[in-house]
């Protein structure tokens, strides 16, 4: 039996940088197990014939011109188009089609190209872990040459590496959490020397190295590959450079899509592109009013029909409303739809800090919520490393400080939550007081495809449940935010939705914003919860969170078989 470990991200940063950046290795075949989507479609590791091309010098273009023309013809390219693509390369890459997707070859095509024996052009059978266009990259994680970490993780494997062969292990995401199972046998590498500018030189050679002596297991996730790709496309088309999207299935709590930006390779210097922003805590702003409303209704401290008044400022703690002059007389539902700070600060004061914290925790905030539990000998196995807990009140803040409570009630002060928690909070509105622990992995499969371990559904252990009347009222309030409130941009969507907006100032000068939208669809048949956050936005009235939310929801409800 194989021991399953999980690893914190902290360990990873202690060790040296990737070999790939130092000495020129192209991993043709990782030898690792496949990671599948919910229908068994490969998310990584699917073996196929691919054309791996190294940047070619002008001399090579002249010397091998005839043969290169044959390659272009064999893969169905005009020679000029083939040359343009290869000349744009600064490092070894696989050939892609016109849409930028990896091009796969038939075995016959591959063999014909192999017979041409052109240095720098390799038609090889490979898995696609090298493919930068793969979906869900941060969730799946990365595999690197980390001998130090590998030895500390697998001390029983002793000195290993008799040939000085690199030990490659998963260092983030699912690749890290399930590394002991995904690691497998032989992997194939192309190694090469580089010139001063990092360009490969001639003298390439193929190297096969033995890995761990066994056949790798497979991991079946809860993701829907098509949906994941669609979500990422929507994010990119909206020009989102930093943010996250989580799509959750309401009945099971399973994660259908989880996207994070920036992409690896596109991050700024201060950012870690491999951080999965869906798991990182950040200030929620007004989406937290969902917690305040539930606490107010379920404790009976506010009756659904009670009215409040907003004249634009609270009159204490310097708290002002987003609407100058105020919203006037409103019910709790109207104040939620209008996202009125003045009313929600009053409501929070009445509810009190202890209740706010208690309801937040019952909704899965202030703690890690992804599936964790016993897997064989591991008591607290986590499906993903790097999930942050979020915060309601920090240890330094007194829960009876009325100013702090008022700010907490509108999702400011210490409050932080992750996009995953935000989506799961919406799902909880439909679970009759139960809070699910979302899964990203459904089962581990043996190399022969037979199930090895199934992750059973888990729910949070809570002392008290939230009553259904309060949950139902808040679901309705989300609908009202769409029909009459701050989410009215969704009124014209092809599907009827419930939603809540949020804006949180951030940055040292409070000059950028996190723009949130959470909600469910359809209104008549709620099947999906979605949370969107777009970070580091310059304009407070940026509408892209609305746009992304709407497009993701419209895509979900159009999806065949759903
Ligand atoms: Zn107001």
Number of alpha- plus pi-helical segments? 19
Average pLDDT confidence is 88
The number of strands is 25
Main sheet properties: 5 strands, mixed
Low-pLDDT stretches are: 1-22
Describe the global form.
elongated
Approximately how much beta-strand content do the residues carry?
15-25%
Distance between the termini: 38 Å
CATH topology name of the domain at 225-558: Beta-lactamase
Derived from helix and strand composition plus strand pairing, the structural class reads: alpha+beta
> From the coordinates shown, what is the CATH architecture of the domain at 225-558?
3-Layer(aba) Sandwich
CATH class designation of the domain at 225-558: Alpha Beta
Strand order of the largest sheet: 3-2-12-20-21
Q: Helix coverage percent of residues? A: 25-40%
CATH H-level superfamily of the domain at 225-558? DD-peptidase/beta-lactamase superfamily
Radius of gyration, CA atoms, in whole angstroms: 26 Å
| Hetero compounds | zinc ion
């Amino acid at each position: 039996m194989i021991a399953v470990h999980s690893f914190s991200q902290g360990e990873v940063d202690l060790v040296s940088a990737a070999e790939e950046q130092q000495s020129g290795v192209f991993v043709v075949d990782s030898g690792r197990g496949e990671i599948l989507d919910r229908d068994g479609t490969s998310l990584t590791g699917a073996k196929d014939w691919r054309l791996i091309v190294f940047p070619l010098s002008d001399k090579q273009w002249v010397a091998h011109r005839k043969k290169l023309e044959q390659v272009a013809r064999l893969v169905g390219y005009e020679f000029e188009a083939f040359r343009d693509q290869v000349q744009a390369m600064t490092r070894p890459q696989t050939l892609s089609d016109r849409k930028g997707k990896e091009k796969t070859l038939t075995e016959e095509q591959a063999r014909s190209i192999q017979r041409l024996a052109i240095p720098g052009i390799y038609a090889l059978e490979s898995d696609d872990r090298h493919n930068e266009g793969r979906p869900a990259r941060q969730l799946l994680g990365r595999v690197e040459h980390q001998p130090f970490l590998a030895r500390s993780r697998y001390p029983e494997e002793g000195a290993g590496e008799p040939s000085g062969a690199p030990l490659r292990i998963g260092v983030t995401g699912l690749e890290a959490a399930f590394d002991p199972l995904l690691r497998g046998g032989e992997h194939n590498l192309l190694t090469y020397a580089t010139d001063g500018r990092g360009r490969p030189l001639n003298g390439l050679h193929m190297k096969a190295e033995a890995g761990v002596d066994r056949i790798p297991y497979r991991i079946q996730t809860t993701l829907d590959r098509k949906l994941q790709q669609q979500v990422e496309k929507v994010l990119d088309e909206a020009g989102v450079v930093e943010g996250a999207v989580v799509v959750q299935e309401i009945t099971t709590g399973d994660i259908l899509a989880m996207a994070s930006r920036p992409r690896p390779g596109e991050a700024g210097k201060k950012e870690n592109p491999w951080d999965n922003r869906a798991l990182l805590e950040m200030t929620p702003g007004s989406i937290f009013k969902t917690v305040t409303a539930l606490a107010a209704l379920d404790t009976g401290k506010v009756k659904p029909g009670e009215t409040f008044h907003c004249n634009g400022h609270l009159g204490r703690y310097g708290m002002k409303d987003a609407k100058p002059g105020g919203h006037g007389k409103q019910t709790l539902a109207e104040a939620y739809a209008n996202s009125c700070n003045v009313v929600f600060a009053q409501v929070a004061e009445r509810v009190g800090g202890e209740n706010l914290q208690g309801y937040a925790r019952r909704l899965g905030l202030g703690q890690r919520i992804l599936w964790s539990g016993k897997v064989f000998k591991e008591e607290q196995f986590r499906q993903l490393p790097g999930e942050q807990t979020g915060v309601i009140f920090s240890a330094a803040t007194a829960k009876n400080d009325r100013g702090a409570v008022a700010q907490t009630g509108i999702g400011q002060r210490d409050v932080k939550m992750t996009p995953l928690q935000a989506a799961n909070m919406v799902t909880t509105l439909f679970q009759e007081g139960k809070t699910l622990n979302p899964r990203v992995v459904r089962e581990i499969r043996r190399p022969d495809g037979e199930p090895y371990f199934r992750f059973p559904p888990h729910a949070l252990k809570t002392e008290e449940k939230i009553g259904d009347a309060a949950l139902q009222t808040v679901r309705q309030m989300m609908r009202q935010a769409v029909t009459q409130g701050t989410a009215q941009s969704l009124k014209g969507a092809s599907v009827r939705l419930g939603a809540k907006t949020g804006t949180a100032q951030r940055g040292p000068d409070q000059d950028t914003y996190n723009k949130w939208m959470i909600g469910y669809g359809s209104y008549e048949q709620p099947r999906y919860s979605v949370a969107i956050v777009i970070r580091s936005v310059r304009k407070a009235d940026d509408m892209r969170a609305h746009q992304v939310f709407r497009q993701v929801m419209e895509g979900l409800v159009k999806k065949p078989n759903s």
